[in-house]
Amino acid sequence: MKILVFGATGMLGKALMRRWKEDQVLGLGSAQADIRHPEQVAAVVSSAAPDWIVLSAAYTDVDGCELNPTLASTVNTQGAVNVAKAAAQAHSRLLFISTDYVFDGNNSTPYETTHPTNPINAYGKTKAEAEQRISLILPDSCIVRTSWLFGPGGKCFPDTILKLADTRPQLEVVNDQRGCPTYTADLADAIVRLCQGDARGIVHATNRGDCTWYEFACEILRQAGLKTQVRATTSDKFVRPAPRPKYSVLAPASLTAHGLEMRPWPETLSEYFALRVAG
Ligand SMILES: NC(=O)c1ccc[n+]([C@@H]2O[C@H](COP(=O)([O-])OP(=O)(O)OC[C@H]3O[C@@H](n4cnc5c(N)ncnc54)[C@H](OP(=O)(O)O)[C@@H]3O)[C@@H](O)[C@H]2O)c1
Hints:
- This protein has helices at residues 11-19, 38-48, 62-67, 69-90, 122-137, 157-167, 184-196, 213-224, 253-256, 269-278; strands at residues 2-6, 24-28, 52-55, 93-99, 142-146, 149-150, 170-174, 178-179, 182-183, 201-204, 211-212, 229-233.
- By secondary structure, the chain is an alpha/beta fold.
- Strand 1 (2-6), helix 1 (11-19) and strand 2 (24-28) form a beta-alpha-beta unit.
- The chain is globular, with a radius of gyration of 18 Å.
- The site of NADP nicotinamide-adenine-dinucleotide phosphate has 27 residues, from helix 1, helix 4 and strand 4.
């Protein structure tokens, strides 16, 4: 197959480029094609004529989106629409990467794909609107919602915790937001298999198991063999521009329906540590 990845320079995009060896893959960053500009997108899509487009490109700074909702909407919604229209024109399939932040966080059991979206921040709104508009343009698209990504080559929670642990004897981490940490290499593998398996519709793809950010930090430090103390705190003590859902655990049924399963997130940390050190 011929594959075109938008967002290949990002944290997940790099994992996709490392993983995807069996097909002919072209990966682009914003310097090669800015998804805000439909003519740039149309030109690269028509020249590559891909079987699948994976749209991983996004404005992912959640607080930045809250402070600059116009930019967020232009990249995350209009950019996605530009890619979907080009895919329709070129008869390419589209796999769009979306987020747990399309949900409001009021659940106390894992979110199924059929649960209504109700985002509480600008980032989540722009991604939820992209999902809806893509589905209208390309009813056979595949929308992969994931959460709490971490991996080498990107700004992510475990990297921040390990850097802070270098300089501080004690850390405070919020214990009132629950989600599913997801290792980019494992997600990349699931994405490749979904494309190869001709997937369509909404799929929730995360590593197995859920935790709070506090529990995540404790496990990172434990597996890294560090003695740094972690104190649990609450989100109201860490006021940030964008509110976060309290609970955004995604149910795995839609992934298992495709014959796929991702391992428990604690099992991925040692691999992440090794690649982080390797640079
Ligand atoms: N990070 C998470 O925790 C998380 C959670 C759930 C879902 N997601 C979703 O997963 C996907 C990948 O996230 P990530 O963490 O890998 O993102 P990332 O590291 O922030 O990378 C973002 C990518 O998007 C590209 N990009 C940004 N603006 C663009 C534009 N105007 N035109 C073209 N490309 C543009 C960047 O290109 P350049 O670097 O070349 O500018 C980069 O390749 C995103 O769709 C995100 O919404 C992420």
